[in-house]
Specification:
Elements lengths: L16 H15 L1 E2 L1 H7 L5 H8 L14 H17 L3 E4 L3 E3 L5 E3 L8 H8 E4 L1
Antiparallel strand pairs: 1-5, 2-5, 3-4
């Protein structure tokens, strides 16, 4: 089911839900933390090579290298957030930075336009 807006009452009906929850369960078994980038890796939508390039500042924003359309990426992020809330995981905002050529740290961007709510969805880690 593809819904226009995922909410607490309907997100479990989304076709991606079983795959995402399986990945989340696996991550919690291993490390007691759910990191959205790890979920995208395990779903096969993000490669380690592309993540490394982004972390080094060689890719302007992460969504440029994710292997799915932006609406699907947002659905995945929303399901992660809602499921983490259901599991009572603690959300912690993580800052992703790299050093610029001048040596100063710069904040890495996940989305093309850097919208705060989208950036927050990507950068929130959920602790078990």
């Amino acid at each position: 089911m593809k819904t226009r807006r995922l909410k607490r009452h309907n997100y479990r009906k989304d076709t991606l839900y079983p795959h995402i929850t399986q990945v989340i369960d696996s991550l919690l078994e291993d490390a007691q933390v759910v990191i959205p980038l790890d979920v995208f890796h395990q779903l096969g939508m993000l490669t380690s090579k592309n993540t490394t390039k982004w972390r080094q500042g060689k890719t302007p924003y992460l969504e440029q290298v994710i292997r799915c359309n932006l609406s699907k990426a947002k659905r995945i992020l929303t399901i992660i957030r809602l499921h983490a809330m259901e599991l009572e995981l603690r959300p912690v905002l993580h800052k992703y930075r790299c050093k610029s050529k001048g040596g100063n740290p710069i904040t890495l961007q996940f989305s093309k336009y850097g919208q705060a709510h989208v950036e927050r969805l990507y950068s929130t880690h959920y602790l078990g």
